[in-house]
Design a protein that fits this description.
524 residues, alpha+beta, Muramoyl-pentapeptide Carboxypeptidase, domain 1, L,D-transpeptidase catalytic domain-like, 20 helices, 18 strands, elongated
């Protein structure tokens, strides 16, 4: 953390400059807060006491209601490796924010100059205090807060108490989320999202999250571009953890390219280096909205069956991220892109068990598709069915096995009332789209062949050669699994991946929007 320089300069007649670390290294490393800091070391020697008195007298003369706390306040700066206590560069740090919130919640605490202190945390306030005054006002608030909460102690050591206050356990305590149920959630994604929520609360209190202002009209940004928007994007990606440090550069360089790619991949965008307006708009979503999304998805975790934690093998398909994860032996064995039902033919959210794998499948076309899409084509073209490798069997239209079959070369079956299943597809180019809602409700899997091979590893008779032959498209072949594989079709608009990175995804079926209403109930 860097101390605010104006504060140090005002006190420079009495204090000299040196390097320091605001919080002990072990505390910082425990919370991944490694920072390089420079600050003023305050040494109150006899030969500069007059200058110190001059500075402090000026402050307490202007804030006369705090004069009786002068010695206590100044003791916080005495013989300490601290300059500005409550600031991180240009902004009030997390500890200053926690102090303010704790003081506001303390019953019967009379706070002199409440209006001035409130202005420090009001971004719309017109009157801005100097950071020297602001820091000393917050130190005065700390003394008042400590006196109120330690009224039974005859003697207070403000300096030692401040050391206890300035640690990240204070932050964790202040940001700990409360739940309506004192019940351990089985799905561990809940706690991963909770950790992100705590991080975002700290970030919100730091006031570092500022809207990215772009040029009008907006022009897509590409590598080597130079723009004030680039510098703002760089800061945003630094705050999000996609960048290790913020160089403030307005050049779209190699370092930013890597960060943009990381940002896009974790949020389900097409993996390229182009910064389109939609990406800036996503980055500008208020933190408060993102935190509400996190809370909604934490509640969704409660609805996930406890069976998922007991299963060492399962398939999870998350609709908003268009992604399938196959877990085997407790570890992620395969990840694949998917596309799902269109808004008018939504993929149903439910749990089941995969009990069959069907190779080179027939596709029996639903009557709704026959009536709405095929009937007129068949009537106008007698050769239509033959040309599309289809046939009429017992009054039903079905597509024969083959590489052009709409189900591809393999499908995965699991009981459900909506006749939803997973399958391969010959339309591989559709996976290049960011929003992948193309199907009539079934789940199209990009790596369907690889998924089948992974699921059949425990069946020695299913050699790679036998799988290839079964997928040759000549005849349908069905295999019943002796061990059923649980499948969870979910709707998470935010998830933490295996690398601990948070992703936010489109509310494609507007289920989040439905849940924001009063008395809404979260259901998967």
């Amino acid at each position: 953390m860097k101390t605010y320089y104006s504060f140090a300069l005002i006190l420079s007649l009495s204090f000299f400059i040196s390097s320091f670390s605001r919080i002990e290294k072990n505390t910082l490393s425990d919370h991944n807060k490694k920072t390089s800091t420079i600050a003023a070391i305050y040494n109150l020697h006899n030969d500069n006491a007059d200058n110190v008195d001059k500075v402090s007298n000026d402050f307490f003369k202007r804030y006369s209601d705090l004069k009786k706390y002068k010695s206590d306040v100044m003791s916080l700066y005495k013989n300490r490796t601290l300059g500005s206590i409550w600031f991180d560069e240009d902004d009030i740090n997390e500890f200053g924010t926690v102090l303010y919130e704790k003081a506001k919640k303390t019953n019967d605490l009379v706070i002199p100059y409440q209006k001035e202190i409130d202005q420090l945390f009001d971004q719309s306030a017109q009157t801005k205090l100097s950071k020297t005054d602001a820091d000393m006002l917050l130190s005065s608030l700390y003394v008042l807060y400590t006196k109120k909460n330690n009224a039974d102690k005859k003697r207070l050591s403000y300096d030692s108490m401040l050391k206890d206050f300035l640690n990240y356990s204070t932050i964790e305590e202040a940001t700990a989320s409360t739940t309506t149920e004192d019940v351990k959630v089985q799905y561990d994604q809940y706690y991963k999202l909770e950790d992100v929520l705590k991080k975002y609360k700290r970030l919100e209190r730091s006031h570092k999250w500022k809207p990215i202002v772009t040029e009008t009209p907006y022009k897509e940004l590409r590598p080597d571009a130079v723009s004030s928007t680039i510098a703002q994007v760089r800061t945003r990606l630094y705050l999000m953890g996609d960048l290790q440090h913020d160089s403030k550069s307005d050049v779209y360089d190699r370092e930013l390219m890597d960060a943009v790619m990381k940002y896009k991949v974790r949020n389900g965008f097409k993996p390229n280096y182009i910064l389109a307006e939609e990406h800036i708009n996503e980055m500008n979503i208020p933190l408060s909205d993102k935190m509400e999304t996190l809370k909604l998805n934490m509640e969704r975790c409660r609805a996930i069956s406890a069976q998922i934690t007991a299963s060492d093998e399962y398939v999870l398909v998350n609709v908003p991220s268009y992604e399938l994860i196959y877990v085997k032996n407790g570890k992620v064995a395969l990840t694949s892109s998917v596309f799902v039902g269109a808004p008018l033919t939504k993929t149903t959210i439910f749990n089941s068990e995969i009990d069959r794998i069907v190779f080179s499948p027939y596709w029996t076309i639903p009557q709704s598709i026959v009536q709405n899409e095929l009937k007129s084509k068949i009537a106008s073209d007698p050769n239509y069915l033959a040309e599309k490798n289809m046939e009429m069997i017992n009054g039903q239209v079905r597509q024969k096995p083959g590489p052009d079959n709409s189900l591809g070369l393999v499908k995965f079956m699991f009981p459900n009332q909506d006749d939803i299943y997973m399958h391969d597809t010959p339309s591989k180019t559709l996976f290049d789209f960011e929003k992948r809602t193309f199907s009539h409700g079934c789940i199209n899997v990009k790596m369907a062949k690889e998924l089948a091979a992974a699921m059949l590893q425990d069946y020695p008779e299913w050699t790679p050669a036998k799988i290839d032959k079964a997928m040759d498209g000549k005849a349908e072949k069905s295999f019943k699994l002796t061990k059923k594989v649980p499948i969870y079709i979910t709707y998470f608009t935010s998830l933490v991946n295996e690398n601990g990175e948070i992703g936010f995804f489109q509310d494609v079926y507007e289920k989040d929007k439905e849940l924001t209403g009063e008395n809404a109930v979260v259901t998967q």
